[in-house]
Amino acid sequence: MEELNCVADESVNCEECELNGKLLCRFDHTFSNKFTALNLIYRLFACIILTLGGFLTQTWWPLLLYAITNILNFILIEPWLLCAHCPYYQKEGKFLKCWALRGMPKIRKYHPGPMTNLEKSLMFVIGAFIDLFAFVMLIFYIVLYFVRKEDNIVILIGLIVVGVGFLGLIMFLNKLLQGGTCKKCPNFSCPMNKTPKEYLRMFLDKDQNQRIKNAWEKEKKD
Q: Residue 221: is its pLDDT beyond 70?
């Protein structure tokens, strides 16, 4: 049986660790529930925008495409490309036990090394799509409303109100992630990760994390 890294090993005493409080090394139900709720509300607002746009244009493929892409991303793509490189992924069980994608299936074996350039590129493209598609379509629908000189003011008001809330969520989530969470996340290979290199070095130098350290050093040599 392979040795667990210090994040996956729940028997580790974090109180004596110099990284305690500096990294999100332990699963926090409260924080995870908060992040999941915000993420779901964000996706709900996006779906409402695309639904209103569907009534405006009588075209429903944007909503269908967005829904399918999100389902595939969070169940298959992101766990495969991104999560498989995270120390949390080594936790026992067939489902993820982390603060971000809790409950998603493990469909790939644990890869302790950093993400490849191809994986980062694919994750960037897919992530940009699911995060920006609804916002781009919001602008398109509003412009289309005035170009066509539509008379359904209810849809326009709905798009504006939901759009304002959507933009507010974008700014709040960005502040939550970039302002704090991404500076403490142990998934160091994530393109959004902003953890100080000093913390990365301290983490890799721990005896329990030598497999991760070796994988990172091998990747640099290759």
A: no
**Which DSSP category does 17 fall into?**
-
Residue pair 83/104 in contact (Cβ under 8 Å)? The answer is: yes
The CA distances from residue 212 to 23, 117, 137, 149, in Å, are: 16, 18, 41, 59
- The DSSP annotation for 62-76 comes to HHHHHHHHHHHIIII
Confidence of residue 222 (pLDDT cuts 50, 70, 90): low
Radius of gyration for the alpha carbons in the chain, expressed in angstroms and rounded: 20
Q: Provide, for the chain, the percentages of residues in helix, strand and coil under a 3-state DSSP scheme, each rounded to the nearest 5.
A: 65, 0, 35
Residue 187 token pair:
């998934």
Domain parsing of the chain, residue ranges: 27-221
Q: What global pTM score does this model have?
A: 0.87
Q: What is the pLDDT of residues 87-133, one digit of tens each?
A: 999 998 999 988 888 889 998 999 999 999 999 999 999 999 998 99
CB neighbour burial string for 31-48, b if at least 16 within 10 angstroms, e if fewer? ebeebeeeeeebbebbbb
Whether the pLDDT of residue 174 is over 70: the answer is: yes
